[in-house]
Amino acid sequence: MPQTPVKNLLLKGLFFALVFSIPFGSYLFPIDLDVIVLSLFRISLFLSVPVLFFTGNLKLYSGTFTKIHFYLMAGWVLYASVTYFWAIDAQYFIKELFYLFSGALIFVVFHSYYHCLKNPIKTFFTAWFTGFFSQFLLSLWEMNTGNHLYGNFYHFLKTLSPNHFVNWVPVSTFNNPNNFSIYLVLSSIFFFITRKVRPEYKDLFMGLIAYCFLAIHLGSSRLGVIAILTTYFLYLLLNNTAETIKKFASPKLWVLIAISTATFFYILNTDYTSIMAESQIKETGIKNTPAPTKPTSGMNSTEVRKNLIINGLHYFADSKLIGIGAGGFEPYTQSGMGKKDTGGMINPHNWTIQVLANYGLIVFVPLYGFYFILIAYFMRHRKTFLLGSQSHFYVSGGIMLFVVYAITSNSDSSFINNNLNWTTLTILTLIGDQIELKSSKSILPAFLNNQLKK
Q: Is the Cβ–Cβ distance between 326 and 94 less than 8 Å?
């Protein structure tokens, strides 16, 4: 079906709104439907399906990786629906099924836009950076004033002194420092990639990357710090020649690294939010109060996470390896059916355990098999393309995204309802298809690859 200028504008506008609204959650045009909340992102997502369909642009899959992804998500949604017969809480079940269905739609819609728009990558980055700039300004406001948008984090701060250092921790629209850190790490990868494509803005992008690290550090997200440092390392390793890397043997450079490292650890160990809080205390005379930990039993977060993992494995084993059902982890834990005390925490805080406990081996094996195929394919082609070429950026970007995805998936309390989860997996799949198109090689066995291409 031929594309008219009006259709192109409509499709591009919807895609822009979709990507722009990813980090805003329910803060943009919220519609409360009791069990779930619609927002600009979800409205754009659901509206995109009929628009793409009636303009003849709805595309379920194209290459090997998108075909695997489509059938994986279709099978997952189908199996999740079947688990209704043994799920113990209808409300949690409906919520998780909705999140899972939304994840499948994110893949189909993003894939369709990628193939029907004239320059989808440019539109994606323009929308992402526009959204990021809004988040950047909002987080600066938080760090400067100690104020936050109304939400869960806002209510948590009400339990503290107005001068407690946590008031100056940036969370933007994410209501949680860990979730905000996931967004910042992903943005850093996009900045690294765009820095190479648009070298005239390299200083700006490096400044934004430094801001991302500072914001993650202020939020005390350990996995976020690990993820962004891993991103730095992988970028240097994947986007430099062996000769460039060998220059690190230079004594002068090692002196510079030593000075930079010392400065880095000084910054890392400096609690700037406490400094800001102390300055406020001097002005108001109000003393700080300790932040209450969310676990009601006084356990630290590491112990809580460990116990949540143990409980998840117990649910998995107790379900005869088929899973306790969609949305089952939270009500099981809330009902005290776990072996270990989690101090009031009911969310899994671990993507692997969440999938294994709720869906068993029936979903875990194909999902993690797909993960393995993706990273193995990226690693296989890390030296296939010319350094600095667009195809090489696809490969290096895919490796960086995958590693960060693996780390940050264990940072969020419940990764299945995080739009960044499904968006990142979709991008990885599209990169896989693009590399396959450029290289004309598949990592799959010949007979399986032929079957998938039928």
A: no
